[in-house]
Amino acid sequence: MHVQYPTLADCIGNTPLVRLQRLGQESGNTLLVKLEGNNPAGSVKDRPALSMIERAERQGRIRPGDTLIEATSGNTGIALAMVAAIKGYRMVLIMPESSTAERKTAMTAYGAQLILVESMEAARDLALAMQADGQGKVLDQFANQDNPRAHYQGTGPEIWQQTHGQITHFISAMGTTGTIMGVSKYLKEQNSAIQIIGLQPDANASIPGIRRWPETYLPSIYEQERVDRVIDLCQAEAENCMRRLAREEGIFCGVSSGGAVAAMLQVAQEVENAVLVAIICDRGDRYLSSGVFNSESI
């Protein structure tokens, strides 16, 4: 009998949705988190990485052996490096030098070349300049509709099915905004009353993977009307909730995920009979060298 075994790419998506057992229970609402760190390269960005490369292949824009270039703060770069390794592309990643050592090492482990610059804005500018110079092809997660499409076709339907259509609030940190754009579009098509809540760092916060973009760098895939509410994240609140998730729920995640759950706890105090879903976008082992887990503050 011939058995068809999955490839690594087949294992992207269909991540667990689990209920919080301690945090926020006093609200009486149902608080759920989607564990995107269970993807093969460890984050929600596995979904758009595969989507952007496979659709570019189908459209004839890239072919194995080409050089791909991308600006990234970390998770997208790791995911693209993995997919490039699967499919036979050379991957050049441009990222802020402030990114954690774990992220840099993970990218090079997959065979990617790293270029370090001072900021994400500088990384985006350099990627486009290198493409214009003929050094490779930029997938451009900030402007590529195959980024939100991955979540419209995957993450959104999964959440709808896993909550049996009972979801009332969706909460996600915003970086490229691909996750919140794609999930919002799908969920609103199922039930326009579902509230979509986005998170951005406040003026004093520096949280890996999410940004308050200057107007000229705002991702072109972002459509403001798809987000019902935006909450500003405080650095300490995001980090404290991240540590509490590990200690009280056994969920080991990064700072932006802690922020998403902190926002979900805030919203849960404002509503009744609600089913809230937050995205846990990656795993905590990506941040160990930053020292964020060393604090005793909870």
From TrEMBL:
Q: In which pathway does it act?
A: Amino-acid biosynthesis; L-cysteine biosynthesis; L-cysteine from L-serine: step 2/2
Task: List the keywords (alphabetical).
Answer: Amino-acid biosynthesis, Cysteine biosynthesis, Pyridoxal phosphate, Transferase
Cited InterPro entries? Cys_synth, Cys_Synth/Cystath_Beta-Synth, CysM, P-phosphate_BS, TrpB-like_PALP, TrpB-like_PALP_sf
What reaction(s) does this enzyme catalyze?
O-acetyl-L-serine + hydrogen sulfide = L-cysteine + acetate
Q: Which residues form the Tryptophan synthase beta chain-like PALP domain?
A: 10-282
Tell me its EC number(s), please. 2.5.1.47
Q: Which domain of life is it from?
A: Bacteria
Q: Which residues cross the membrane?
A: none
The cofactor required is:
pyridoxal 5'-phosphate
Q: Which GO terms describe its molecular function?
A: cysteine synthase activity
A UniProt-annotated Pfam family: PALP
| Record NCBIfam families | cysKM, cysM, PRK11761.1
**Entry-linked PANTHER family:** CYSTATHIONINE BETA-SYNTHASE
This one is known as Cysteine synthase
Identify the species of origin.
Thiopseudomonas acetoxidans
Gene transcribed to yield this protein: cysM
